[in-house]
């Protein structure tokens, strides 16, 4: 009775060990892979003259460009809290808004154009799902203060170089480029100007985004009166004229019998000719085509026009946010979707020109263009293609020196010190369990071998180096294995050597 | 009038570009130094068999072991905010409490003992001052599940190895070791047991901490009736008996005419003999001395008893928190304090055994010991001793290809691509300024050289590589410099070569 009465009390006092939803821990394999991946990206970015910068995780909410939080729900979307002086602070939700604050704060002392890169965790208080977290890592590069689209072109080529450095084969990725001004021009030429028609413009953007799923017939219906799908549901269309619809379809360069990828396969010159026709008569549209032509010339000159960087009208997402060129890094190799159907892996990063970024602080527009990589998504892709940069397996564990006799712990510690001095990761078993549990511990650590010295070996001045991989093979060896093979395997699994040969014997096993 | 009426409105709408107080940005030199430093620490920790782990920045407030926030001031000390389901979340204020949560959550699948390391930013909402920030980085290593003090000894030796790997010379640092149980024993033997006498115990701890400033006379007064300082102010003492006072002074091993460092200089054996005498009759105290003796034997066996790791009664800070051995990494080289007086640099990290850490989650004590490095303080120390691991100077900037003729930008871009392909960090000038401003830009980037091709050079198929360092020397050259030297310097400052020799010429200058 006493026990039963006491236990619930104890349990009530215990704190439940759990991380809040949408927040994850990372183990050694994932950390090592992500570090190697980011180091490789850094090397490419520095080759392009970009320099590192870091900003704090907490900024004034107003500096992040968000409206002040709703007092009843201050953490909607962005985590926010009040400082001692009642000013609102927020955890950064991307790396772009803090960069704008940094550039504005240090405007006079920074070199301009200012090329910088930074990686770090950002926080969004949104519903999470598979692969969606409330804390996740981005890797950004931005050029601030360069009005020329050569800055945008450079970032596109840098993104291509970074993907190849990471082990993505040429042909397995494409950097797609479009321009907000071109789309504005197409819409203007189709009679939908910027100020009014917001709803119609959105319908058009969404329709273009559906080309690869619906084909041109379906999209033309969505651009016109509307479309009835297989289930009989009707989606209201944008109500454009036939001429406007034809212009937009021509702009996309879409052919239903084509490669299936919108515009891709056609070369940049053909795409630009389509664009020119589609924006005819729109000043802004023509400006956009001129910008893309200038970028295409730079891709040509640098040899990136071989399918690495492609002008592509299908990039429409985010276009409402950016003010000039937009670009997206897409991995084109196939994976299976949740229904087992083959699909392209898809986007691992994107960006574009957004000239309004620093203006909020300085009152004058400052040209800026930047590119952001979703670190865990890219990591997942690299693991999928088995890039040597990343590794899904746990790193090899240290050599474990077993404790056979507690009185001799200083001696065992000496073996460990000798191994470490020789650059071999090694440790003394520090638990209180017996030999079998110690061997299991070494297995769990993914150690290749253990060092053993019982009283017999000590008397002879010897140690045993046990190869855990060969030992496991020995355990699984067929009963009818020829005796010679068995003995050879046994010898391999366990070496007895003099103490002086500890390092040599261990390195021998580690080198197998 | 219109202008004047408009401008204030514009200014009012502008957001001020500033980071909240106590939060700092980091530039490329500091980031590069910190990364190299942490990479070196990681290498040593992995050599010792510690594996990486990372936890999120946000945890349940209760999991961090804090009381729930005061609703009126939820951000006192720790930044806290409520989740959608009204549960309190906090930004982590150290890396230890999240580790305890992680270990408790993954207890069955982790190898035990579990050795891990992690580095990352932590957040404290405290008053900040010089060198004190609300976001700062820690680098921790912990062993969970090892009851033996061999685990504590290992971490002490690992800390010593890490400091040497970072360029701190042997003799310029000391890892000081003490034990909470010994101090408990001393206080118990002096008649101050744990339950009552909390105020007196604190007076004793504070008095011991003042030995190097007040000498033994002053401290004996503080342990007895009290002490009047030079200004005539009186500090009430602990009121201990003469026997108790003598015991405590003997425990500290302090000699006023000594090295000035408490107990340091005496060897571990002498210190342990002092400890034994001071705790005589106290069971807990004797247990503490036995633990320290065991650690000392391990330091002896591994050769760390040469002044690298020293048992030292002066380590009293934090003793109230820990439950067994405590250790502190102190840099002993001298720096000037704010009054220009020479002082030791002091502590860069510390830790100890705290067996209650995981118990809050599991209801049973889990032995744990760990060590935490203050990253920016250690970085400051390494910069002070000019360790090659860190560098206070900005990294060398990229080679800048100047834009002399906007029509030829694709050609310039080609030079840049050629340099990058050869592994040389290079960039195209992307601003809109003229040649002088472009040269100033390259200076600001800390570039060693620029590549120039005007129309004259283009006609000849040549480029000019301008060495900015030699160029600066040329600008400062004395007027009466011999003409030959001047010409040699001039030739060095500016090389004209065929386009095909671009990479060779640039590498030649970079290698100077």
DSSP summary: helix tally of chain A: 18
Class of secondary structure makeup of chain A: alpha+beta
| Uncertain residue ranges of chain A | 1-11, 258-265
Q: Tally the beta strands of chain A.
A: 18
Q: Report the CATH superfamily of the largest domain in chain A.
A: Bira Bifunctional Protein, Domain 2
- Biggest β-sheet of chain A: count, sense, barrel? 8 strands, mixed
CATH hierarchy, class of the largest domain in chain A: Alpha Beta
Helix content percent band of chain A = 40-55%
Q: What is the chains' assembly state?
A: homodimer
Relative strand content of chain A: 15-25%
Ends apart, CA distance between termini of chain A:
60 Å
Rg on CA atoms of chain A, Å: 31 Å
CATH architecture label name of the largest domain in chain A: 2-Layer Sandwich
> What is the general shape of chain A?
elongated
Pair with the biggest interface? A-B, 104 and 104 residues
**Strand order in the largest sheet of chain A:** 1-5-6-13-12-11-7-10
What CATH calls the topology of the largest domain in chain A is BirA Bifunctional Protein, domain 2
The total number of structural domains of chain A is 3
**Mean pLDDT of chain A, rounded to whole units?**
89
Outline the structure in words:
The structure is a homodimer of 512-residue chains. With 512 residues, chain A is α+β, with helices and mostly antiparallel strands. The first copy, chain A, folds into 3 domains: 168 residues, BirA Bifunctional Protein, domain 2 (2-Layer Sandwich); 162 residues, Bira Bifunctional Protein, Domain 2 (BirA Bifunctional Protein, domain 2), CATH 3.30.930; 112 residues, Rossmann fold (3-Layer(aba) Sandwich). In chain A, 41% of the residues lie in helices and 20% in strands. In chain A, helix 5 packs antiparallel against helix 10, helix 8 packs antiparallel against helix 9 and helix 16 packs antiparallel against helix 17. The longest helix of chain A is centred in the N-terminal third of the chain and has 20 residues. Chains A and B meet through helix 1, helix 2, strand 1, strand 2 and strand 3 of A and helix 1, helix 2, strand 1, strand 2 and strand 3 of B.
